[in-house]
DNA sequence: AAGAGTTTGTGAACGCGAGAACAAAACGAG
DNA sequence: CTCGTTTTGTTCTCGCGTTCACAAACTCTT
C-alpha cells in the first residue's frame, strides 16, 4: 500500500500497462457478449493473449476489483477499465486527409463503439468537398480551427501524404489539439504536452520481413 | 567483440533495435532524396526522432559501417540496413478481406517502394470478385493455397472482420504462410514459428484518450 | 466452525533497453 | 610528424517491465 501523492485517483499507471488496458477492455467486451458473468485472471489473460501474472499486476494499478478465490465480475471490471482509460463518454475526433486511408477510417464503425465520434473529415483538395463519407461531409482543411473550437476536439488523426503531415500537425497543435494519431510515414515534432502516436504499416511489414529472412537463413 | 555463435552473419539483434531499423531506413531514404552524401549519428538520429546514442548502439549490432570523425555514408548505410532487414528484394504479400481497409491497403503505393509486392487480393464475398483494385483483381479466398504455393508467399495481411480472422489465419498457416499482419481486433493463436503483428487503431486512440483524460484532470 | 480448495494481489528476482560517458579512430592543420 | 578536433563504437549504470512465487482472502463442503 503506497501513500497517494495527491488526491484520490492520482495513481501512476506504467505506460506498458496503459497500452494493454484497451486489450483487456476488448477481451472483457467479448466475454460480456458471450454472456460470461465472472472470470478468473487466467481466463481473461487467455482471452487477451497475455501472461496471467502480468494481467493481475496491471489490474492492481487500477485498484482491487477482484475477489480472491472467485475472480473478477466481468461487467464491473469492464466499467472500471473503461473509466480509467476515459472512454465512458465519447471523444470527438477529426480526421485530416480523406484519401484511400481516410475513407477507410471514416467508414470504420469500430470507432464509435469504442468511445470515439468522428465529428469532421477535412481535406485540402476542393474536389473532395462535395463528398459525404459515412454520413459526415468532407470539409475544407481551413475549417479546422472553427470545428475544433466548436466541438471541443482534443484528438486529431492525420492521414495525409507524408510531406503535408508536419504542417497539418502544426495547425492542429496551434488550435488546441493535444493528441495526434499519425498514419503518415513522417517524424512529427510537436511541443511538450502534445502526444503523438504513429501507426506505420510499412514498418510492421519490414519487421516481419526481418524475421522471415532469419527463418529462411537458419533453414 | 563477442564470438560468433554459428556462421558469419549470425548476429542477434535485439527486438527493440529491429523495430527501429525501418525508421532509420526511411530517414536515410529521405536524406538520399535530399542529396545528402554523409551524415553524423546526430543528424540521422534527429531525422529518425531518436537519441543519437541509441542510434549508434543500434547500428553497432549490424557492424561497423561508420567512419570515426566523419560519420556514415548515407547510401552505403541505407543498403546495409535494407539488407539486414531483408528488403533488398521484394517480398510477395497476399491481402485477405478487401473491404474498406483492404481497398486502402491495396491502393497504397508505399508497399511497393519499401520491399513488398501485393500479389493477390482475396475476399470471401463473391460480389467482390469482379473488381480490380490497383491493377490486381480480387479473387476467391479459396484460391489462397494455389497462390501461396505458386508465388512462394510468406507474408499475409488480414483485413477481415474480427470473427473471421482466426479462421483466415489458420488457413494461411496451413498453406505455409509464416508471417501475419493482422488488422482485425482479435487475438490470433498460431503455432510456434509463425510471427503475428497486430495493428489496432482503436487501441492507439484509447491510449491517447487515457493521456488526454489525465491532462484534463490535472488542469 | 474448521478445513480444503481457489484465486487474487504483491514482494522479490531477473533481464532487457535507454542513455550517459568515454576511449579509440579518423582526419586536417601546421 | 604531431596535435587538436570530430565522431564513432562500446562500456557501464540505472530504471522499467516481466515473471515467479507465495501469503492473504474468499468460498464451499462437511
Ligand atoms: N493507404 C494505405 O493503406 C496506407 C497505409 C499506410 C500508410 N499510409 C499513409 O497514409 C497517408 C494517406 O494515405 P492515402 O493512401 O490515403 O493517400 P491519398 O493520397 O489517397 O490521400 C491523401 C489525402 O490527403 C489530402 N491532403 C493532401 N495534403 C493535405 C493537406 N495539407 N491538408 C489536408 N489534406 C491534405 C489529399 O487531398 C488526399 O485526399 C499517407 O501518408 C500514406 O503514406 C496509407
Ligand atoms: N476500416 C478501418 O479503418 C479499420 C480500422 C481499424 C481496424 N479495422 C479492422 O479491419 C477489419 C476490416 O475492416 P473493414 O472496415 O475493411 O471491414 P469491411 O467489412 O469493409 O471488410 C471486410 C471484408 O472482409 C471480407 N470477408 C469477411 N469474411 C471473410 C473471410 N472469412 N475470408 C475472406 N474475406 C472475408 C468481407 O467480404 C469484406 O469484404 C475489421 O476487422 C476492422 O475491425 C478497420
UniProtKB/TrEMBL annotation, chains A, B:
It is found in: Cytoplasm. NAD(+) binds at residues 97-102. InterPro entries: CoA-bd (IPR003781), NAD(P)-bd_dom_sf (IPR036291), Rex_actinobacterial-type (IPR058236), Rex_DNA-bd_C_dom (IPR009718), Tscrpt_rep_Rex (IPR022876), WH-like_DNA-bd_sf (IPR036388), WH_DNA-bd_sf (IPR036390). It comes from the Bacteria. Keywords: Cytoplasm, DNA-binding, NAD, Repressor, Transcription, Transcription regulation. Its main location: cytoplasm. Residues 86-187 form the CoA-binding domain. One of its GO terms (cellular component) is cytoplasm. Gene3D superfamilies: NAD(P)-binding Rossmann-like Domain, Winged helix-like DNA-binding domain superfamily/Winged helix DNA-binding domain. One of its GO terms (biological process) is negative regulation of DNA-templated transcription. Pfam families: CoA_binding (PF02629), Put_DNA-bind_N (PF06971). Residues 23-62 bind DNA. GO terms for molecular function: DNA binding; DNA-binding transcription factor activity. Belongs to the transcriptional regulatory Rex family. Homodimer. NCBIfam families: PRK05472.1-3 (NF003989), PRK05472.2-1 (NF003992), PRK05472.2-2 (NF003993), PRK05472.2-3 (NF003994), PRK05472.2-4 (NF003995), PRK05472.2-5 (NF003996). Modulates transcription in response to changes in cellular NADH/NAD(+) redox state. This is Redox-sensing transcriptional repressor Rex.
